[in-house]
Amino acid sequence: MGLMTLGMLLFATNDALVKAHMGALSVAQALGVRGIFATIGVAAFLMASGTRLTLAGYWHPLVVGRSLAEGLAVFFLFQALWRMPIGDVTAVSQSMPLFLLPIAVLVLGEKVSPVQWALVILGFIGIVLIAKPASAGFDPAIGLAIGTTICFVLRDVTVKFIPPHIASATVTFSTVSVVMAAALALATIQGLGPMGVKQTGMLGLAGLLLAAGQAAIITALRMAPVSQVGPFNYTKTAFAVVIGILFFGERPDLITAAGIGLVALSGILIASGLGRPRA
């Protein structure tokens, strides 16, 4: 539980570093530079932990598709972070269970109980409160945050169909390296901007924090069942809100705070198995 919480703190800090230093750069270039350090960091962790890093299955269509879905999600995420408060974006991007349940019914044929449907509706009410579509403060960039969530859902559903002989380490390494390559390719097409030592260092630090967060989560999932550590994934929203207040001067109003709370609460309850049909 502590490792999962640490991973979420590292992820939130990584997001904040990129948000703070991508104003003069395209999102693609910022993600590409971060990706170089993240790829090196993940590879170093896997080797240091004794995990055999094999490229068998690296180019499997489902593995590549999962990695591209992750890349598109991250691109949408930082486009949204550039325009919106970090706490709002993080809360919406973590609403994956709200989208996963309907897809689990349609694609995987799983059963969903009335309690779970009620939690999904509760979470969507939270998203509406964050977006405030009928107010003058409505920001269309909320669509980018929702796009992030949908891409994350596609990423997670894809895992269900990846052949079991492909190691999880291969999938993890594919994710960070494919995102890096795709971001650098897009940045090159868009035109690379000049970067100072400080900016490069901060994006490099963000990449290493991302790799460290991945390491913490991998270790946590090895030590305990997903049902025990999964709900702690939502501590990232709390960290993001605090970071937004302390470092970006963001002050969520009561309606937004209520929406963030509803999204996090519904996600935690779904992740903890409330209302899950018995086999």
UniProtKB/TrEMBL annotation:
Transmembrane segments: 36-55, 67-85, 91-108, 115-131, 137-154, 166-189, 201-221, 233-249, 255-275
Keywords: Membrane, Transmembrane, Transmembrane helix
InterPro entries in UniProt: EamA_dom (IPR000620), EmrE-like (IPR037185)
UniProt GO cellular component terms: membrane
Pfam families: EamA
Record has Transmembrane as a keyword: yes
Keyword Calcium in record: no
Protein name per Swiss-Prot or TrEMBL: EamA-like transporter family protein
Upper classification of the organism: Bacteria, Pseudomonadati, Pseudomonadota, Alphaproteobacteria, Hyphomicrobiales
